[in-house]
Amino acid sequence: MKLDSKIPEGHISKKWTDYKDHLKLVAPNNRPKIDIIVVGTGLAGASAAASLGEMGYNVKAFCYQDSPRRAHSIAAQGGINAAKNYQNDGDSIYRLFYDTIKGGDYRAREANVHRLAEVSGNIIDQCVAQGVPFAREYGGLLDNRSFGGTQVQRTFYAAGQTGQQLLLGAYSALSRQIGLGRVKMFNRHEMLDLVKVDGKARGIIARNLVTGELERHSAHAVVIATGGYGNVYFLSTNAMGSNVTASWKIHKKGAFFANPCFVQIHPTCIPVHGTNQAKLTLMSESLRNSGRIWVPKKKEDAQAIREGRLKPTDLAEEDRDYYLERKYPSFGNLAPRDISSRAGKEVCDEGRGIEANDTNEGVFLDFSSEIQNKGKQAAFAQGNHNPTPEEITTLGKQWLKEKYGNLFTMYQKITDENPYETPMKIYPAVHYTMGGVWVDYNLQSTIPGCFVAGEANFSDHGANRLGASALMQGLADGYFVLPYTVSNYLADEIRTGKISTETQEFIDAENNVKNSIESLLKNKGSKSVDHFHKRLGLIMWNKVGMARNEAGLKQAIEEIAALKEEFYNDVYVPGTADELNPELEKALRVADFIDLGQLMAMDALQRKESCGGHFREEYQDAEGETLRDDENFSFVSAWEYMGYDISKEILNKEELKYEFIKIAARNYK
C-alpha cells in the first residue's frame, strides 16, 4: 500500500496556515448532529474532547481510570517546550523545529514537526488562560529552564509537577463540557475493539471494568489518545495500567503501526532495587540543569561505594569522572536522553556503576556544586558579600528546595536517602515510545475516520524525543490540530445520520471480544499473567533494549513467538467476565504486548543502522556514537497486520524528505 502523508505544498513556514485556510468546515448548526468518540483522557485526549465539545460536537470520552485526572500525563514532571524566547537567548520557531528534528536523529516528518513548533506558543497562552500555575520570575514573567538537546531556555514548568498542572487545566476544560452535556464521560471503561463499517471507523466495543458488561458505542469518527507502550518491557516509568491495547486493536483492523522499535530510555530514573519491583520512578530531566552526573574513575572506588566502605562525598574531585561533561562539552549534563543513557550504560558496563543491586548499575546525580553556586548568588542578592560556608550551603539548599522540592522529597521517600546531603543515584529506564500508530498530516490513520493523537501516534519525535516535548505534542494535537482536521473529515458526514449499533459489524466485533475473553478464562493454565509479562520484559530489555544486535534480535523474535504459544496454553486468569477482574484486564493487555514485542524486534532487525534510541551495536563509529544510514533508512517503517502470525506482517515505507533542513551528523560535542 502506498502511504499518502498528505503533506501540503508550499514553504514550511506557511504550510499549516495555508492548509487550514482551505480545510472543509462543519457549520455550528450541524455539529450537534455528529458524534465523536475519544479514547483516552490524558493531555491529548482531554484537550481533544474538550475542544471538540466546545465546538458543539457530541463527544463520548472513555478512560480506564476512575477519573481523567489519573491519566499518566499527570506523572510528567519537568516542563513543556514552547518557542516564546522569553529569555532573549536566541530561541525561535525555527530553532525549536531544528532542535526537534536533530534530536530525533533526522527520522521525523519535517512538516509535522514545524507545525508543532508553530503552535507551541499558543499552548502556553491557552494554559495560562486556564489558570495553570507556571513558575514565574520575580517580576511576574513566566520562567524558563533548559532541557536536554537544546542550548536555549524554552521549557515552561510548574515546580516538578508540570504534567499534573497541565492535566488539571485540560480536565477543567473537559469538565466544563461534561457539565454542558456536550461530552459524555465513561470512566472505568476500556476499549477492546474498533468497529468498521464500509471501511470507515464507526465505533468501538468497550468493557465496563466494574460490571464486566460489553458495550457498543457508535460515532462518525474515533480519536485514539491512549499513550505509549513502554510497559511492553514490564519495568518502565509508565503507570502500571498504561498499555497498547487500543492502538493494537486498531492496528489489527487496518491501521499501520510505525517505527515500533523507536523507544526512549530515560537517563534519570531511580535504579532497580529488586526482582519483585513492579515499576520504576522517573526523576525529572529538569534536575540535569542543576545536577552533575558522575561515576568514580577507578573501578575499586566504585566497588567500595557499592559495598558501603566509601561514601560518594568522600571521593576527591580528581577521582570523579563527569563523563557527560567530558564527552559532550557543548551540552554537558544536558546532552539528549538517548546519548546520556548510553553513556551511563557504558560506564556501568566498565564496572564503574555505584548502586548495590543485582547488576551494579547506577550513576550519581550530584547537586553539591549547584548548592554552592546558588548559595553564593543568594547571599550576594541579600547584601551579604562575605557569607560563611554554612550560610552558603543553607541558602543553596533553600534555592534547590524552591526549584525542585517535591522531586527531592519523592526521591527521599523512595530511597531513604537525602539528596541535599548525598548525590542521587540514577540509571536509565524505559520511558517514552516514539513509535506508534502511523498517521498522516491530519493525524488520521490508514483507517478513514480513525485519528490518533499524542504518544499513541508516531509523528513528531523521530528516533528520540527531546525532553519537555511530550506535553507539547499532546496539547498541540488536542487543542490546535484535531479540531481542524477532524472537522475537515466530518464535513462529508453531515447527512450520514445516527449510526446504529445493531448492525452486523457491531455484533461481530462484540462477539470477537467476548470469545477472546472466554478463551482466556476457560484456559485454566498454571502460570499467572505477571509471570508471562515479566518474561516478555526480560527478553525485551536484554535483546531489544538500550543496545541491539542481529543475533539478539533474531533470538528475541523466536523467543517471543514461543512465549505467545505458551501464554495461550498455560496462562491462568481467575474470576469471571461479569465482574471487576483486574487479572482479566492484565491478560488482555499482555496478549497485545506480546504481539507488539515481536513486531518491535522485527522492526529493529530490519533497520540496519543506529539512530536515536535505536542503537545497533554493529553500526557505531570509533567513539561509540550512532552511525545512521541516510541513503537506505531515511524512512518511516509502517507495518501492516496480516493475521495471528506476527512474522507475516508487511513493511510499508514512507520516505522522509528534508527540504528545509540540512541533514548532518548528529553532534553534541
Mean pLDDT: 97
Strand order across the largest sheet: 5-2-1-9-17
Poorly predicted segments? none
Instruction: Identify the overall geometry.
Output: globular
Approximate helicity band: 25-40%
Q: What is the makeup of the main sheet?
A: 5 strands, parallel
Number of strands: 19
What gap, in angstroms, lies between the N and C termini?
41 Å
Rg (CA only):
25 Å
What would you call the structural class?
alpha+beta
- Quote the beta fraction: 5-15%
- Provide a count of the helices: 17
Tell me what the structure shows.
By secondary structure, the protein is of the alpha+beta class. It has 17 helices and 19 strands. The strands form 5 sheets. Strands 5-2-1-9-17 form a 5-stranded parallel beta sheet, sandwiched between helices. It has a 5-stranded antiparallel beta sheet with strand order 11-15-14-12-13. It has a 4-stranded antiparallel beta sheet with strand order 16-10-18-19. The protein starts with 14 loop residues before the first helix and ends in a 14-residue tail after the last strand. 53% of the residues are buried.
